[in-house]
Amino acid sequence: MEMKAIKVNKALDEAIPMQEPIKVHEAMRYSLLAGGKCVRPILCMAACEVVGGDESLAIPAACAVEMIHTMSLIHDNLPCMDNDDLRHGKPTNHKVFGENTAVLAGDALLSLAFEHVATKTRNVTPQRVVQAIGELGLTVGSGGLVEGQIVDLASEGKQVSLTELEYIHHHKTGKLLEAAVVCEAIMGGGNEEDVEKLRSYARCTGLLFQVVDDILDVTKSSDELGKTAGKDLMTDKATYPKLMGLEKARQFAGE
Amino acid sequence: MEMKAIKVNKALDEAIPMQEPIKVHEAMRYSLLAGGKCVRPILCMAACEVVGGDESLAIPAACAVEMIHTMSLIHDNLPCMDNDDLRHGKPTNHKVFGENTAVLAGDALLSLAFEHVATKTRNVTPQRVVQAIGELGLTVGSGGLVEGQIVDLASEGKQVSLTELEYIHHHKTGKLLEAAVVCEAIMGGGNEEDVEKLRSYARCTGLLFQVVDDILDVTKSSDELGKTAGKDLMTDKATYPKLMGLEKARQFAGE
């Protein structure tokens, strides 16, 4: 399992070599190679193999998913957004490189994600590559990460229902995970039925993933957690533990 | 000629219908449909037709180019970047919708650009679509718009050589124009030789385009120009007129 994460991290390292202008490449690499990248690549590549594809077909799209995920972290952490100082125990991108470089590093990563799939995928029909790019695109824009973040920002300081919370998390976390799995099923040569089965499976997994993350936020200290602990409570953001109570959220995650 | 711009604007309007969450779609549409979109679509679609392709093949990629261009304007205008209040005579995106929505609207437009080419292009082989997406990707990231903006930001308040200025403008303006032309030559069914010829042609055009823009900045008032006039001089940014003197820059543009 861990081997898959290592392979993706190696491919990510090679995808963004240090070059001029140094600062933006350094900023891109700082957040992209910050570690903690296990769940998504492993799920991704498993989806490719489940439909009978070789692991190697899955790596460029797995890299793209990590690039998109990293872009959304960098932008969501900005002072004008969630204003987060720590992530995985390290200062956030804008804290180290400044706000302007952080915005640009995110833009460059987002664009590189699509370019990388288009130019680095081998032994997959162009038709499948185009289809995968379409799926990836859906996860970012106004129906994905961006939509989730807009609704999340609007929810600060307000009473949010469980349905609204699920909506936010589905868009901010679930959709990318879902697209990752779907992309890899496409890359791996899966037929339409397989792809749709895996899409449903990934939808459930994505939700679980977020509940666990929310629980970690209230129960762990900043040191263990690597992001400002309890911050979601402080800024009065909607989380599962806040809405359901910690014990119920734990139970929900257990189920 | 104008008909082409009208067709692209109609396609852009349809690409982003007003829907929930309203605020981000409104922000995307505000800057994308702000008018002034003539040069790029016309050049784009001409490139498609030059190689014998029907105009309809060119429209999705022309839309993508406008989305990428708009994203870069929205992000470059942010307070942490160039801090511009006016663009085409209208308040900039963050002035109207707030910084966080402006960042997200840019992200959504960038992602939609790639998704749009992947999902809306008709009657072009998937191989050509993948190739065009790869070309578009190169214009944004660390070798394109982002690189230009990083170097541009670093140049404020410094003495910049003409070579450095050309480097900035090539990355911030020229590369997208070049990619637009190249993409459309690919979509139109051009062979490798045609595509490379058009690439060289577009490279020259892109440079000229920026010189004219710089001259307009010093000679026109804010009212005529639609952006804070003389702002490049105020912030001591490198421009052609500053480096060459206004008369020489005019002469250079004339050539």
TrEMBL record, chains A, B:
Keyword vocabulary terms for this entry: Isoprene biosynthesis, Magnesium, Metal-binding, Transferase
Q: Which GO terms describe its cellular component?
A: cytoplasm
Please indicate if the UniProt record lists Transferase as a keyword: yes
Please, which domain of life does this record's source organism belong to?
Eukaryota
Alphabetized InterPro entries for the sequence: Isoprenoid_synthase_dom_sf, Polyprenyl_synt, Prenyl_diphosphate_synthase
The molecular function terms in GO held by this entry are:
metal ion binding; prenyltransferase activity
Q: Which GO terms describe its biological process?
A: isoprenoid biosynthetic process
Q: SUPFAM superfamilies under this entry?
A: Terpenoid synthases
The cofactors required by this protein are: Mg(2+)
PANTHER family on file? FARNESYL DIPHOSPHATE SYNTHASE (PTHR43281)
Record's family?
A: Belongs to the FPP/GGPP synthase family.
Protein name listed in UniProt: Geranylgeranyl pyrophosphate synthase
Q: From which organism does this entry originate?
A: Anisodus tanguticus
